[in-house]
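Worked Example 4.2. Consider the chain below.
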Amino acid sequence: MKREINNIPGHVAIIMDGNGRWAVEKGLSRVFGHHEGTKRVKEIVKYAGEFGVKVLTLFAFSSENWSRPKHEVSVLLHYFQDFLRKELPGMVKSNIRFRVIGREKPIPERILKRIREAERKTEKNTGMTFVLAVNYGSRQEIVDAARQICSRACRGELDPAGLDEAEFSKYLYTAGLPDPDLVIRTSGEIRLSNFLLWQLSYAEMYFPGVLWPDFGRKEFEEALKEYQKRQRRFGNIGPKK
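Applying the procedure from the previous section yields the following structure tokens:
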């Protein structure tokens, strides 16, 4: 099946949506849906590597998610910490470089230590880069970048007149990473929900109806096949016929 897909997107970003609805539809608690969703993360990382994806970014926890019920937030953070503990040895062995994007506060210090450990132990790996967006919001990312630029300009370290898109991108959380080629949002919802708004300017978008806990290898392959059908013009008129 892999040989049928020739044009692999270098960077795939996924909004993992539908855990709670998946559980409610089955008469289960929302937190059970998050538990099942965590299992899919491990699988999709594996599949992405097998297909030759260079960068995989998953939207795990938004800056708006803190407003959810305290118990649900607590469970989500526990699953995240447990995921890092269990999967770090495998990432090291599989030559995967791990990275987290988002603001540190108010993430608990015990989890920040796990994040720093995982990033440190995988920083020299040369295989696929696996990125988790945690306590992430794209608008706050752009504001944070603007603050850094303003501070440097006030200190005379940067001339605003020379600022362009490439230079601005260096101040984003994703500095050093290529922009996504394909963004997938599961559950059928057709919106970006404050995710990588700057970086997704020219990305191809795919919105399958399947909920995240049911998003497996078959669904990932279908997303890649859909990408093959797209003609990326980047503002141009495309190839002449």
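The longest strand covers residues 55-62. Helices lie at 19-25, 30-51, 70-93, 109-122, 138-154, 165-169, 217-229. Compare this with Example 4.1 before moving on.
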